[in-house]
Amino acid sequence: MNELPTELTVHIFHYIDLRSLVRCRQVCRTWNEAIQCDLGLLYKQELAVAGLEDGNSETDVAERLRLLRKHQEAWDNLEFTDDFVIDMHPHPFLSWELQGGVLSQQTTMRSISFRQIPSKVRGIAKKEWSIADLDIMFVDFGLDPSQDLLVLAEGSDLNNPDAHHIHLRTLTNGVRHPLASNSVLQYESKHPHYDHNIRISGDYLAICWEDCLLVVWEWKSGEIRLAMTGPLLTFAFLPNNFILIPRQDEVDIIAIDLTQAAVNGAPYSPEIDTAVSVSDLYYHCAFGLPPLAPGYKINDLEMRYDPQPSCHPTESPPVPFRTTHDGDNLIVLYVTIVKDGSSTLPRFFIRTTSIMQRLVATPAYSKDAKLPWHTWGPSSCWVDPSNRDNPGTWPRNVFGTKYVELQFKRIGFPEPSAVVFADFNQLKYRKSMTTSDSEEACSSDVGGFAPPFREPVITSLSWREKRLSLKREAMEPHRAALVCEDAIVIPQPSPDYTIQFRVMSI
């Protein structure tokens, strides 16, 4: 290739991935200078390091590169371009949701309002709209703005109290979704018509009732792909049709391929009328958690992961870049472990790529493929032993590699002193170690702790951390911070003691 014109060499470089591009820079000075002097290749490298992908904006490469650097610098320094509040309905039993940069709230049992979170850097304007009458009484909802999908969980039907009706509507105007062959999904169960955990990933819609019944549909066809029961059910979608489910008794996390689900060795049949036990499911692979010490048991589980994989990028508004949905994102598993009336609440921060790499390397589909903790966990996780409360299902405090939480002045007091922002992007962490930002870098590869685990737990996942001081308290009982692609959102009381959301956007 040394005999090729520089222009042709650079053209070829545009078709290789980041790892290969870095290696090409190390071949010779000529290649390194060619790569470093090409704006398109610089943009490609910085997108990959940031965990982003190119968007659908018509701006030129130079402008997109400038905006990308501004966006990253704003997150690195927590310097927001906009800081405003949104008044929300004060009724405590009406649902909220933050998904795809859209903050939404049920305003009555039949209506809902939406607010698009703005971003001056990415050119996303404020937008508000509402649907005044959805012609049904719903108790919970989920949404996927990238597919214009609104999922409504209807309240109990007095004529058939065991029937759960799930309505598939458009987010823009609440009519039947045109891609759904059946706009009303139904499942028979005696579980109550509340306490839903609703998540959407591409063609999959999953709903968990009361943490003990999980149903996964292909929402466009209406077919059930999986229905299971078990204690403390929580889940996260992964790329390539996988779903992760932690198990209480086995102290592990199983990965199930939704296209190959099997029960007791036989393929799962969507025609099965009753849900199967999670203990009877065959899985692609199980990831063992640290074994518990004698007398300890898991009392609660909650898993968070956003954005959902296989999420289709939105065409409007056009943006210069966006988060890679199938990239090296972050899974957070909250665990409550009890013994003799006392509890410990460790949190597991897990890289999705480490899970996916092992799934690809484990072709067998069985009930015995289990990786012990020491073979995967120490190099892929950070286990935080601090006893912070599980924020529950609703807070969206994870997005991509970003994680946010409130830091309180004193344990047991509601007034937070700061928002803690942690970025688990490993490429950015390694880059920060060579710059003046290294003092913000954190590593879990120190010491270790044992109880409630049988042996000391030492992990090596690293991250970068920043704190933003707050002047106002968080709203009880919603003591949590939320994060999306361009903003941190905090519930707080208004002067008249109703609920507001403080939005700090980039």
Detail the topology: elements first, then pairings.
Blueprint: H1 6-13, H2 18-25, H3 29-36, H4 39-50, E1 52-54, H5 61-77, E2 82-87, E3 96-99, E4 102-106, E5 112-116, E6 127-131, E7 138-144, E8 149-154, E9 163-170, E10 184-188, E11 196-201, E12 204-209, E13 213-218, E14 223-229, E15 236-238, E16 242-247, E17 252-257, E18 262-263, E19 266-267, E20 276-277, E21 281-282, E22 285-288, E23 297-304, E24 321-323, E25 330-339, E26 342-344, E27 347-351, H6 352-360, E28 370-371, H7 373-380, E29 381-384, E30 398-399, E31 402-408, E32 416-423, H8 426-432, E33 441-443, E34 462-469, E35 482-483, E36 487-493, E37 499-505
Parallel strand pairs: 14-20, 22-28
Antiparallel strand pairs: 1-24, 2-37, 3-4, 4-5, 5-6, 7-8, 8-9, 9-10, 11-12, 12-13, 13-14, 15-16, 16-17, 17-22, 18-19, 18-21, 23-25, 25-26, 25-27, 27-29, 30-31, 31-32, 32-34, 33-34, 35-36, 36-37
Structural account:
This protein has a domain of about 80 residues: Monooxygenase (Up-down Bundle). The strands form 9 sheets. A 5-stranded mixed beta sheet has the order 11-12-13-14-20, with no helix packed on it. The protein has a 5-stranded mixed beta sheet with strand order 15-16-17-22-28. Strands 23, 25, 26, 27 and 29 form a 5-stranded antiparallel beta sheet that branches. The mean pLDDT is about 85. β25 and β26 form a beta hairpin. It has about 500 residues and is an alpha+beta fold. It is built from 8 helices and 37 strands. The radius of gyration is 23 Å and the shape is globular.
